[in-house]
Structure formats: C-alpha cells, structure tokens
Design goal:
The chain is α+β, with helices and mostly antiparallel strands. It has five domains: about 30-315, 2-Layer Sandwich (Beta-Lactamase); about 340-445, PAS domain (Beta-Lactamase), CATH 3.30.450.20; about 470-510 and about 535-570, no CATH class; about 570-665, Helix Hairpins; about 665-854, Heat Shock Protein 90, CATH 3.30.565.10. Helix content is about 45%, strand content about 20%. The strands form six sheets. Strands 1, 2, 3, 4, 5 and 6 form a six-stranded antiparallel β-sheet that branches. A six-stranded mixed β-sheet has the order 26-27-25-24-22-28, with helices on one face. A hairpin with a 5-residue loop joins strand 1 and strand 2 (about 135-140). Helix 19 packs parallel to helix 20 (about 710-730) and helix 20 runs antiparallel to helix 22 (about 790-800). It is flat.
Amino acid sequence: MLSTDVRDPTPPLSRTRRLIGRWWKRQSPVRQDRFATLGPLVSVLLFLAAIISAFWYLRHEEFARETQAVKRDTEIAQQQLRLRLVENRDLLVRFARDLVAREPGREEFAAQALSIGSERPEIAYLLWLGPDRQRIAAWAATPFHYEPNAQGEAPGLDVDGTSGDSAPARAFAAALAQRQPVYSAAFNDITGAPVFQIHVPLMQRGRVAGMLVAQYTIDVLLRLAVPHEIVHRHAMSVLDAATGRELVGTVTGMPGEPPRRAEIVYELPLTPVSEYLLLRGQGSRTSAGLVSSTLFWMVVLLSALTVWMLFGSWRHMRRRTQIQDALVAETNFRRAMENSMLTGMRAMDLEGRITYVNPAFCAMTGFSETELIGRMPPFPYWPPDRIEENTRLLRQEMAGRSPAGGIEVKVMRKDGTVFDARMYVSPLVDAHGEQTGWMTSITNITEAKRIRDQLSASHERFTTVLEGLDAAVSVLSVQQSELLFANRSYRMWFGADARGHALLAGTQFRLPEPHGDDEDGFAGIPTQEFTDSGSDPREVFVEALGKWFDVRSRYLQWTDGRLAQMLIATDITARRRAEELAQQQAQKAEVTSRLVTMGEMASSVAHELNQPLTAITNYCNGMVSRVKSGTISNEDLIAALEKTAHQARRAGQIIHRIRAFVKRSEPQRQSAQARSIVDNVVELAGIELRRRRVQLQTYVAQHLPALMVDPILIEQVLLNLLKNAAEAIDLAQLPPSRRHIELRVVPRHTPEDGGGVEFSVTDSGPGMKPEVLARMYEAFYSTKADGLGIGLGLCRSIVESHRGRLRAQNLYNGEAVVGCRFSFTLPVDLGARADEAPPAPPEMQRTADSATLP
C-alpha cells in the first residue's frame, strides 16, 4: 500500500483569506449588507467602552497623584516647621546661657529680646523668671496684650506658668524637673489667638537659677515657615493633638473663590511639639466626575452621530459601487502621470512614437502637446550636435538596457537654449500585464549641477585655507577614534596619528577602550546636545615638542552623520615667553616702586628719626651733668636710662620697618591677618601723614578670616594709596576739617568678587577728572610733575595677581565732588581660622575696631 504526504504550500494567511472570501460569497446580499452595517457599529461601541475605561483610569491616576502630592507637601511643611523650631530653641538656649553668664538689666534684656523678636516674628513674648518664679524682665511684640498689672501678671493670661493647672504651669514644672527646654500644650492668649510656649531653664552650677519663657503665635509660625508654593497648592492647618481641634490653617485658591471640599487629608506630628500639635495637609480633586464630564458626553454624542452616519453611508454604498468600478482603471493610469508636478513625463509606444506628455514636460521644453504627440525620432528637443548620441541612447532605452540610476542628457528648449536633465526609463504595462511602451521621467538638474560644482570648488578652497593655517586643525570620530581630517600643521607636529588629538583634548576627550564586538558605545546619545555645546579655550603644554598650544574644541556632526570632535591648536609658545618676561619686569618694577616711595618719604623719615635721637642725646647729657655734680640718685639714673633705651628701640623699629618694606624678595603668599597688615602700613604712613597734617581713621572689622597673600605687596598697595590720597589733599590746600583719610577693612561677599576681605581708602580731596580715571592705569602716565606713572599700574597688577580687582570712583554730594575712593577685595585662606579674639559685649557685637591717627 502506497501513501503520499501531500502538503498545501499555500501560507496560512492566504488560506484564511480564501476561507473568509468563500464564506462571504455564500451569504445573501441582505446578510452582507447587514454584516457591513453591524461591523462598524460594533467597532464604535467598543470604542465608546474603551473611552469610558480610559476616563475611569485617568481619574484614578489623578487621585493617586494628588494624594502623593498632599503627602509630599505635608512632609516638606513639617520639615520646615521643625527646622525653624529647632533653630529658635538653639537661639533661646544661647540667650539663656548669656543671661546666666552676664545677668543684664531690664533694658539690656529688652534690647536683646527685641533683636530676637525682629528676626523671629513668630516669638510674640519673652519672659525672664527668677529661681523663686518672680518676674525679672519681660518683652512683648505687642505690649498692649501683655502689659503686666500691679502684681506683675499679664491680664487674663497665665504666661508665667506660676498658678493653676494651666498649660504654661505644667510646662514650667516639667522644665524645672527635667532641667531642659520643654514645650507647653496649645492655649489661647488674651486676643483668642492659639499659642504655645517653650520654657528654657537657666542652669548655673548644676542648679536652676531661673527660667526663660518664649511664647509662639501658631498662626505667624505657620505663615512664615511653610513655603508659599505649598500653601498655594494645598491647605495646611495645625491641630490640637489631644482634642483634634483645628487651631490655625491656611486657605488655598484665588481670593474670592469658595473653598473646595477636602477629599484628601494627611496628618503628621509637628515635631518637636509632636506631643501636643499635629500638622494636617488637605487636598481635593481637580477634575469633575465621570458622568458630569463634558468630554464624556461629547464622546457619547460623537459615537451616536457616527452610528447614524454609518446607516446613511450604507444607503449610498450600493449606488457608488458601480461608478467606482468604471473609474478605477482610468484613475490609476492618470494618477501615475499627473501627480508629478515638476517632473516631465513622456510615454512612447514600442516603435518609439510619443503617445503622451504631461504639462510639466511641455513647460520644460517649451513645445506644446500637439507638437510632440505622434512625433518619431529625432525629436525636436534634441540638440542638433547631439542627434547621434541621443539616437544611441534611444535604442538602448527601447532595448530595456537603461541604467537604474538614470541617464544624464542635454535637452534643447524651443527657444534654442540647452539645459542638463536626468532621464529615468521604466516599462509601461497595461491592465492585462502586457508591455505597451515606455514611460520616461525627465528632471531638470541644471541648478543642482551648478550647486554641486560650486560646492566642489568651495571645498577645494576651504581645504587650501586649512592647509595654509599655522594652527593645527584636526577632526576625530568619537565612536571609532578615527582621525577624519588633519591639516598640514597637525601632520607636521603630530603626524597622522590620532594620539596627538587626544593629547591636545586632554580630559575633554578620552579614546574608548578596544572591545571584541562592534557595539557602538555612544548609541542613543543625542548628537544635538554635543554639537550645540562649546568648550572654553585652554592652554596645553606638549613636552615632546616643547611648545604651548591654545586649544579650542567643539563637537560637530560629520558629513556621514557620525559624532566628531574638532580641535584648533594654536602655537602660543612665543606669547607665553613674553608673558613670563613681562612678569619678571613687573616684579622688578614693584621693587623700584617701593624704593621710589621711600625716596619720596626720605625727608620725613629723617625728621621722624631725629626725634628719638635728640631725646637720647638730651637724656645722656642730663645724666652726665647730674653724675658730675653728684645730684642724681640711683632711681633717677635707672629711670633716665630706661627712657633712653625706649627712644633707641623706637628708632630701631622705624629703621627695621623701612628695611622690611624696601627689601627685595620673591613674592611669597602666606596666611596673613588684615589687622597686622593695616598696623604695619599705618606705622609706615604715619610719618608722611603727620608731615602733611592729614588725619587717618582706620576701621577694621572683628573676626576677619585669614588672607592668603604676600603681606609686603599688599602693604605696598595700601601705602601707595594712602600716600596718593595725602598728596591730593595737601596739593588742594584743604582746610583742617577736610584733611582726613579713612581706611576700612570689612568682609565682603558679592557675585563678581566672591567671598573675601575688602580694603578701601577714602579721602576728602578734590577727586579725579574723568580723563584721569580713564588713563590712570596706563604705564608712565602721571598727573604729578615728578611722578613716574608706575604706582597705580603696579597696584593693579599686585591686586589682580591675588585674584582681586582694583576699583576707583569719585564721591559726590549732589553734583559736587567731595572725595575719591580706591577699593579692592582679597581672597581668604580657607585653611586658616579667623582671628582668635574674646567675644565682645552684646552692645558692641556689630561695632568694628576703629583707630584714629592724628
């Protein structure tokens, strides 16, 4: 018995389609129409069900997001309230320690309490109680509500916690027993506002020496501590933890809007008062209900309208079927030709006769449709000098051997002009599958060819320019680490190796490690983000070449779409050497400036040394005379010798200070104190200022951080500024009331200067003219008859070398100039600590040290 395994080679999808087609043909026309109508109807109903499910899902998601937002905002508000209460508690603890240590009076207590209340508006009342609960001092933000009576008690409110079983009394007792700050439960003050207190014991030698009581206004605390954006989104309220009663709360929404019903509530304990207070966050849904949603009913109405239109379409379907069948063939044929707007279409039969041309072909050649249809080769648009070549191309076209990429030909217009065109040929097949001719499309490529030639010439010129540059230009592929372009300078310095590009790029580019597969490690990175971003120029030293390069880089998209990095490296070795030479000359000029300054002060220094030397001579002559006469005792002799030694030390200190100033040394930055620099400068400048009868007032702020500077150079800058100010005042012959200079040293933190210490020298002289302000830093420019014109230039160089900036400005009183100010800021030494000085009394905390030089 023979068996054969016959398998149907038809694919399953085709078999399914054939089965469905057979089933459809077996149905009667009435049932076919019924199925054709019910199919879209079922689709619309399923679409409506899907929309309703989507609405429900979106509402559920919106409720979950709003709940999460309420929780997040409530937790943020809790953290802000806790942080503010902890900061206030630490401030009150420090205030309590200060009360124990110094025991200030009532007025001083009120002043310090006023300072705390101005910084912390939520603290409405501060009270200082003694060890036996007697009132020592009190302060209130609104004295009308807390003014004590004759017995020392606040009317209608037990703020002292000394009587009854009130919340303040329980907190007072708990703080007294625990010897640490204790919060009270919430209660209402005399105005009815909810408040609570914190009791801070005053500890002295292990015992409670009194109590500091601070009263918080919960409403003010909630408004100041909770961020405004949170209050705008959700309502926040503070509840009594024991009773659940709402004490204070905020209202969200625009003014005049009715409050929305809270559908989402989230509560958290208000630490560190969590035993008595709770923080509640409330939110509500923003969307309407499903049934009341306008969009829902719009979808329902549109679905109903679609069903009605389906029934109307079913009536017109049968009438349109016969018409569509007749137009399908003609429409497909015409659409293939007429849809080409700018491309010329030409149809030929198998003999080479033109049977069809579209309007674009007629506009391209200038010949009308009647002049072309029916013509045999040679065609009128063939140039006379290319008839043989075009005949050969036509035979190749008729034989079906035209290349797929098209043929570039010359076409002549009716007016005799010639243009370049590209011709594509495809066989023309009728509805029965038989070839009836050839369809040719012609595109004018004259403009494209001209642009291509221009781009080629432009590329050649661009390459010539890059090859002639003295800077090295290189382009490296980021993915493959392949050198895509390198000009002549790059090849001369680094060869054709991509390592030179990586050496110049440094940390801005790292060649990827080789790996076995072809996986692109940069796949998915947005190229636009790289190409839009640039990089700051930087200087790189190549040790192998002994050259400095100014390197500029940026990312770009290469012609084939790859991400690449372009570098332009300019040789700046000569410039760097010139800068080093200029820096050495500037250092020599600094020493010269110091010597010139001391030369100008020579007569004043001699006069200053003459005083201690004359005193020494007088003391010695007096002692010799009295010793010879025997009228001096041992005590008088010792006193005279001590005065003589003092005058000698004074002269030695003057000479030592001058030698240290003019001594030539390399700039050495070290940690220095601003007060020490100012003291040294005042000592040096005092001689010149006394000679010119100019008073100097110094103002040095307390607890200034240490500076990382060269003290001698900074002293030189200050001395030069003081000397210039004194000369300006003296030359203007101002009266004694205006012959003064102010030297201020204060901390400064500005966006342009950053953190540091600001030095400013302000004089009351005639100021500087605008043309002098514009040129005062130029080399060898001076307004003095004997000036060298290098002082201010050196000062600016010194300040800029310390990462500072020297500024000058005139001071005005209305339109009159009343002085001039020079100021500069120096960076601080972050590794050093501030000046170690004992704490100043409270009334002097905001006052800096000041000194006056007569």
